[in-house]
Amino acid sequence: MDQTRVQVRPRRRSEIEILPLGGCGEIGMNLMLYGFQSRWLVVDCGMALRQDLPDTPLQIPDVSSLATLGIRPEAIVITHGHEDHLGALGWLWPRFGCPIYATPLAAGIARQKLVEQGLATDAIRVFKPGARFDAGPFSVQSINVAHSIPESVSLLLEVDRHRILHTGDWKIDPNPILGATTREQDFTRIAPVDLVVGDSTNAMVEEHSRSEGDVATTLERLIEGCKGRVVVSCFASNLARILAAGLAARRHRRRIALLGRAMEKMVRLGRELGYLADFPDTVPLSDIGYLPPDEILILATGSQGESRAALSRLAANQHSALEIEAGDCIIFSSRAIPGNERAVTRLQQAFTHRGAHVFSDETHPGLHASGHPGQDELLSLYRWVRPAHLLPVHGETLHQQAHCAIADSLGIKSTILPINGQWLRWNGKRMMTEEILTLSPVIISQRKRARKPSHRQNDTIIVLPVIHQIDKGQWQRVGRMLIDSQVDAFVDEETLGDWVDITLEGITARTSVELSHLLEELANHWLGEQLRQSSRVTIDIVDTTLQR
């Protein structure tokens, strides 16, 4: 008797929805949505600086259509702490109201963004690079990668047999100075993946990206030969570059001063997280006039020619604490972001006109290292993870096309060059366009932002993580505080921490809100006595009790 044959077909995978609202067809302002069965996850929430518009405003992604479409993200995951990946949180997170997952450094920067907008920070969930966690409908495996800021991660997103690698920003650097290296074994372990959503920024660059270790060596040699005052300008988020400049200054007997609020905040945060433990003590800008020019090094922000930045005011001789003189050395340890070239050139010419010596990566190769992979690095990654398909993001059209050509050389399919607003569906084998949303530029005036705190020149904001010991009815400080003070000579973290610990022992509060009010009143009185000046203190309590 013939036996009936039963053919079991493999179950079809449900579709993944992919919706970029920033970072596709452009560089910067990254925001990507991933959806599965009407549940959504946001990866990154960045902004862009519009040098082409008067007063250099900010631009953030247009998310206005999401509510109409019934899209309400359940989580935001931040890949690293750069402005083009988290700078829009202060404006966009209130629309979502969901948990924000970030590594400790990115979480510290994210807290600053929320606090600046008067928002609570208890939505932030901290994970260590390499950790696995659930976010929205996805299981997320974070993977350490090297970049121009520590604690950068790629993300493996898994759901219903789908395996998508979102690379974030990355490079292969054997000596990143700070942070992790990009390790082959971390990626071969997850191979093969169905889809890579990959960084295209340097897909047109043939050579391998330069190591941060090489930049440190170049800076050291250049600073050694400089006469007069030295100003080193770099991105404030590049803690490795800041540390390299600081150590070079110490070796050549130069005192360090910081120019720019962003630089001050990042150095403070870098110290709190232990990345700048070896960074020399700084001197106030108000004191540098008493030091010989050849004994000072200034770390400054504003290398992109931003008109409102401290470096531009310095070039125009409009800074109250410092005047550039003939023979001073201005080192640009950065490269112009596409679109900023003219502004950077004008800034450098202004310094040259004042008789300063200007050094840049274009004239003195080795002063900057890109944080993005060149062509051989992209080839290495794809040989490690063996993807079936590529979706090229983080770049303009030419970058995306070059990225696709690299993938094609390895037999990897890449059928779509995504643009912002292009709603895609991925079934595990094919990428299809559902529709293209109409997006409008959302512009944020920096002039308005600058006026907002002008009446609060002596404000201090303290972000204080605590845990509630229910058995004792007491609150206890955990981890390190985040201190953002506009007072020039604020108390050191250890002194403040000791006071907080002692004060918490005598406070009985039922809620974190009540604790915040009580602690603020006591802190205002205590700091007034310590500083001999009035300083309005705001304490943002982060209750970690339920997260432990």
Describe this structure in words.
It is a single chain. By secondary structure, the protein is an alpha/beta fold. It has 3 domains: 16-207 and 370-444, 4-Layer Sandwich (Metallo-beta-lactamase, Chain A); 212-360, Rossmann fold (3-Layer(aba) Sandwich), CATH 3.40.50.10710; 459-543, Ubiquitin-like (UB roll) (Roll), CATH 3.10.20. Helix content is 28%, strand content 23%. It contains 15 helices and 26 strands. The strands form 5 sheets. Strands 8-7-6-3-2-1-20-21 form an 8-stranded mixed beta sheet. Strands 9-10-11-12-13-19 form a 6-stranded mixed beta sheet, covered by helices on one side. The protein starts with 15 loop residues before the first strand and ends in a 5-residue tail after the last strand. Residues 448-456 have low confidence and may be disordered.
Number of helices: 15
Largest sheet data: 8 strands, mixed
The domain count comes to 3
Give the CA-based shape: globular
Q: Which architecture of the largest domain does the CATH hierarchy give at level 2?
A: 4-Layer Sandwich
Residue windows where pLDDT falls under 50 for at least 5 positions? 448-456
Regarding CATH, which class of the largest domain? Alpha Beta
Could you tell me the CATH topology label of the largest domain.
Metallo-beta-lactamase, Chain A
The number of E-state strands comes to: 26
How are strands sequenced across the largest beta sheet? 8-7-6-3-2-1-20-21
Strand content: 15-25%
Mean pLDDT: 89
Radius of gyration based on Cα positions: 25 Å
* N-to-C span: 64 Å
* Helical/strand content category: alpha/beta
Determine the fraction of residues in helical runs and give it as a percent range: 25-40%
CATH superfamily of the largest domain: Ribonuclease Z/Hydroxyacylglutathione hydrolase-like
Pfam family, one: RMMBL
GO molecular function, one term: RNA binding
Keywords: Exonuclease, Hydrolase, Metal-binding, Nuclease, RNA-binding, Zinc
Organism: Kushneria avicenniae
